[in-house]
């Protein structure tokens, strides 16, 4: 294999850096993650295990597990099993965790049991971005992006399901109206309580019908048609970026709490990377320390 760059023999002795710190550059994103998590008040955020038990086997500190997850989502590695392997072979992650290597079950349980606390961490970073003046607050836009999740068949809706549900509501309204007419023909004192309950049911069903039809949303849009164009250029980019970040896959966890934790970690990782591109890793670390 002449005329090519020659590799070294695997049995040849080498002189590696003496410490893990030499493997992590001064602008490495992991240094930002390390400073960010160390500055958080994990007790007030509600992380389980932030206050150690007086008895039993010592547990992994939640800061270590949070660092593992933020690093994982920064590098598109959300799986607890893959994160377990990374902690055992990735030199940069060994630096971040101090060579601690939790098993996948410990990593997975941390995300499952600390959904609200993880959402709080995401909010903390948003507050920091506000303090740094990185975005304005004069307009709030809500996106209609759809993210794949593991959902109960009875809890999701398709066009056919919506149509059937609207037909059921309309049938119920007609039935209650017929009962209301019958109540009106009865003695007034006896019919008043039942008529009141029927009117409440009809009002609730009509509200559900409006929500399904999106009439109120359409009315607001008709009154301000330019807002749709504003919404598109405000939110389409970040949510499209998040979808690309997550890959063509669904959330790994089940139920709202788990999905909320995953989404918060994705948003946090995305925000961290964007802020580092704007003010640099060193600039963000100075802001975090301040």
Notes on the structure:
The chain has 290 residues and is mainly alpha-helical. Helix content is 65%, strand content 0%. It is built from twelve helices and no strands. It has helices at residues 29-38, 42-45, 62-74, 80-89, 91-97, 104-113, 115-131, 159-184, 188-213, 215-223, 226-246, 255-289. Helix 1 crosses helix 12, helix 3 (62-74) crosses helix 6 and helix 4 packs across helix 6 (104-113). The protein is elongated. The relative contact order is 0.13. The model has no long low-confidence stretch (mean pLDDT 81).
Low-confidence region ranges: none
Assign the structural class, choosing from mainly alpha, mainly beta, alpha/beta, alpha+beta, or little secondary structure.
mainly alpha
What's the rounded overall pLDDT mean? 81
Order of helices and strands: HHHHHHHHHHHH
Q: Tally the beta strands.
A: 0
Q: Per DSSP, what share of the residues sits in E-state strands of 2 or more residues?
A: under 5%
CA-CA gap between termini: 55 Å
User: What would you report as the Rg, rounded to the nearest angstrom?
Assistant: 27 Å
- The helix content is 55-70%
Number of helices: 12
Give the overall form: elongated
Summarize the biggest pleated sheet: none
